[in-house]
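Dear Dr. V.,

Thank you for agreeing to look over these. As mentioned in my earlier message, I'm a first-year student in the group and I'm still getting used to reading structure tokens, so any feedback on how I've presented them would be very welcome. I ran two proteins. I've put each sequence directly above its structure. The first is here:
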Amino acid sequence: MKQKVLLVEDESIVARDIRKTLERNGFKVVGVARSVEKAFSLIEEHHPTLALVDIFLKGNLTGIDLAEVLNKKEIPFIYLSANSNQQVLEAAKSTNPYGFVIKPFRERDLLLTLDIASYRYENKKTMDNDRIYSSLDTTIPLSPSTQKEKIVHSKVDQFRCENIIGKSAAMLHVFNLIEQVAPYDTSVLILGESGTGKEGVANCIVQQSPRKNKPFIKVNCAAIPQELMESEFFGHEKGAFTGATEKRIGKFEQAIGGTILLDEVGEITLEMQAKLLRVLQERESQRIGSASTIKADVRILASTSRILEKELSEGKFRLDLYYRLLVFPIRLPPLRSRKEDIPLLIDHFLRYYAGKAGKKIPALDPDTMQKLLHYKWPGNVRQLQHMIERMILSNNNKIDPEGESNTDTTPVMQAKKEQPQVKTLDEVERDYILAILKQCNFKISGTGGAAELLNLSANTLHSKMKKLGIKITHE
């Protein structure tokens, strides 16, 4: 049966193009509304099964106001948006849409979002309206119903993710979201505090996807100097810039046919965010120094421990890129909110590290288990993992997480307390010269040396290094 779609859009040209796209692809458009008031009457008359809703419309009411009615009538909807400020973004998120499409968009972007929205809605109905699914806030708990829990547990038992441990409601929800999105090529944004297992979720998505036997390239965006990002992502041609002595294949080109994980995507510069957006929109990349483009048949997964909404409000992250990545978000819960999983995780890590060390699996002291269950775990699963590993290596079945917290959590706690500091010009220049020196293997003069790459004489570079306190013992 054809999906009956209500299109709520006040720009006539945009509405016409979307209508043609939908009808060409088997959807039935039951009407086009330029205002919320008109949408109300079309809903009552035609009972649509899906709605595409622009946020800003003619009249006093917005698409966000309409969303309240759509939710009450259990009609899934997708927002269409050209732009938004922080306040509107928060209001839109609170209505739990089934997707976002950013204007301008291509036909396949719209169709893919519609496909996923339909799949999510059907899955929600199949689960008897269990709240295992939440469109944008994945921290909503599952229903405690015993019958529903049995259904979910049975489903998860059939759906395995290597090295992801947990049977709490929050983790069952994560497994369900992974199962929903894995078969598709849509981008996924994995959110969560440091140490919650975001890379494990990315691995699981790839394992369950049709691209599982294709390249899977992981990029730690936080570890790449800003001035080297474009070359690292997209590659460069020989001679593209001073020091480019040979052609370089970028990470996106390496991942063609497969998947790329942009770990800590919130660390990417605004300039690179614009270039990444082009890859998402146009599905093509371009090496530095090349006039031709490369078709980028690459599925993009992204993860971040940053709060991107805060980055948006501070102008550090592009809204259009945020929406592009937000097609399907998965939010990982912190360990402190799923303490029922701690015994499972402890057992898993005890077996793993005991086997790795060739030792017997130790029995934990009961007092230690209680301490582990009641600890706040600021470093999340990674902190627990490291603590168990140290316990095995030290042949000790007693550990005090409070006593060991300085070892694992000091960096985590400091990271939360520290405020970003504005660097001086000398500090910026020093960091840049150090990055170039590392790129040149600390060679200063001659062909391919840092002086050549910086377009300076060797003497000038030596003077700058002395002034900035940069010391190396060899060239």
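The second protein is here, in the same arrangement:
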Amino acid sequence: MPTLTMPQLGESVTEGTILQWLKEPGEQVALDEPIVEVETEKVTVEIPSPYAGTLSAVLVEAGETVDVGTALAEIGGGGSGAAAKSDESAAPKADPEITPASTPAVAPVAATPSTSATGQGRRRYSPAVMRLADEHGIDPSTLTGSGQGGRVTRKDVQAAVSGGKPVAADAAPAPVATPASAVATGTAAEFDKVVEFSPIRRRIAANMVRSKQTAPHAWLVMEADVTEMVRLRARAKDEFRRREGADLTYLAFVSRAVCQALHAFPIVNATWSDEELVQRHAVNLGVAVDAEEGLIVPVVRDADHLTVGALATSIADVAARARTRKLKLDEVQGGTFTIDNTGVFGTVVSAPIINYPQVAILTTEAVIKRPIVLDNDAIAVRSMMNICLSFDHRAMDGSTAAGFAAHVRDALAAVGPDTSIY
């Protein structure tokens, strides 16, 4: 029977969580009609049906996280005169300009649900259920499933973990830990709270580990005199808010300066592909956004073609939609350089981790007024901002990285009362 499988929703996405089914078993489904809502670490999307027919069976319940290629549902009558499409075509394609030509396409790997023999036959378990059960030494065949048809879900395994349900017969019983012994052994004590990682937090963790293990990070910081930029923004921000409905932020000015520097130092606008460094033509600027579920980096495409004002509205738009999980797929992939505005939290120096496979990341720090010795040896109170750059030392040497950072610094210092934001 034709099946709907979990598509690969992004270049680095390996799994997705079923949020809700939009159709019930027995209902008719049209070709390309949305059938299920899926959440990944990057986006929440509705998956269209690759077949026309009847939703015969739901194989993965809402709340479960499964790997790419896992069968999600069976659709009856999908082969009877329906203009069926392959599951691969149901998945959005990566931008060909962004995907390196030397990188082979990765086809979704079919994941066969695990089974376990019981007195009533063989039961099916999703990879997410099996993974969680294995981590805690629980035999899922001992659990009563709350899913459709008695299917065991992740919630059932989690309930067994917290409620002390029966485990596999050959598994040793877990010792009862006191708070003191829990601290010593690393197990959860009675009053401790076990926080399960969300899909986005797991992906962030994996990406950070990969970046630190793969890219030899080097770091530098420069201070920029942004006094005139601060004054210009103060004069223009109210009118800009009235006209555009968005804030004229320091980040927009920094983004413009970064785009200019990337043209002067194109090797910084690059990504790794296997063992090759691909210098990108397009400047697709990633902007780190602190969302409730974790850090998201939406991408402003062709940012070097935008003015300060256009950057301000574009960044505000993608940031708002990142926090409400309404980003489009092409807005979370294909970035060539990333900026993180840590200064909004009051930081003055930070050492960011590179958004691999990019080769550099820049943070903007808090704007602070302090006395500065000018060229004529006079002392004046100026608005100063640190800009911090982490870079992959394989891709560039310190002189290149310092030259890039200095270009950003000088572009910010050059902002004056006559600088146009449009």
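From my reading of the second output: The chain has a mean pLDDT of 82. The first strand starts at residue 3 and ends at 5. Does that match how you would interpret it?

Kind regards,
E.
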